[in-house]
Amino acid sequence: MYYGCCLCGNVKFTLSGSINDIVHCHCSLCRKAQGSAFATNANVDAATFKFTSGEDNLTAYSSSNAQKKYFCSTCGSPIMSKNTDSPDTIRIRLGTIESDISERPSAHIFVSSKANWETLPENDAVPQYDGYIKK
To answer: Could you read off the pLDDT of 87-109 as tens digits, one per residue?
Structure first.
């Protein structure tokens, strides 16, 4: 069981399933949404993700016709995104998980779009890709 919350603690959730497809995304959209060099995202089975408090405190932004990103309306923490093309999957921001995570990142994606001031370690064992990778 994983436990997570936003910065202010108003939005809390549990995850009873596995965390899949963990990636460090360096695209400009993730950089802007996260306010950092990259966002670490993962897919989870929607049936295993449950809000324990604060779901009504979320605000949504439609980043495309199919995708909505959800944030805490108090502190602004990005929590997750949903895509109508994949209704059984939720994409979570891994930084919101408070529990130790046993799964590990599988890739750096959109590295050709990374910020010009960011330097990836040469000895990083995590593979790097110029675009999105599909499993």
So the answer is: 999 999 999 999 999 999 998 98
